[in-house]
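User: quick one, fold this
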Amino acid sequence: MAAALALLLTGMLLGVMLTAVIVLPHLATRYLAPATAGPFVREIQPVFQRAAAAAALVAGVLAIGQLAGVLLVLVGATLLLQVLWLGPAIERYGRRGLAGERSAMATAIHLHRANLAIGLFQFLTGLIAFALILREMG
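Assistant:
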């Protein structure tokens, strides 16, 4: 039962991650005015990250004692770091960059690229955990 719930939560985690990265920005830029699309995505992104972090942590606890559990807790912890530290830092440096501070904009760009790389790592790690739980279920 715990493995089935961990599998379900991991699948939801992967779905939320794909929706937040691919579907949501596309829909926002397609159907919202440019002046509101960016702020909307920046406002809703942390909500998706918190949901993904919760799903990853709960699935990790359910799969405790397995490699998949460790991987999912790692994904959840890095998602929380993104929500609590990296996202606000990108926003802060981006605003300073838009105000004309060149070095701040460069920092925002570097942090954003790091955020994307971490997100790819999280997704691939979640996919591996999903496969491990599925294999464990038989």
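User: anything notable?
Assistant: Residues 2-137 form one domain.
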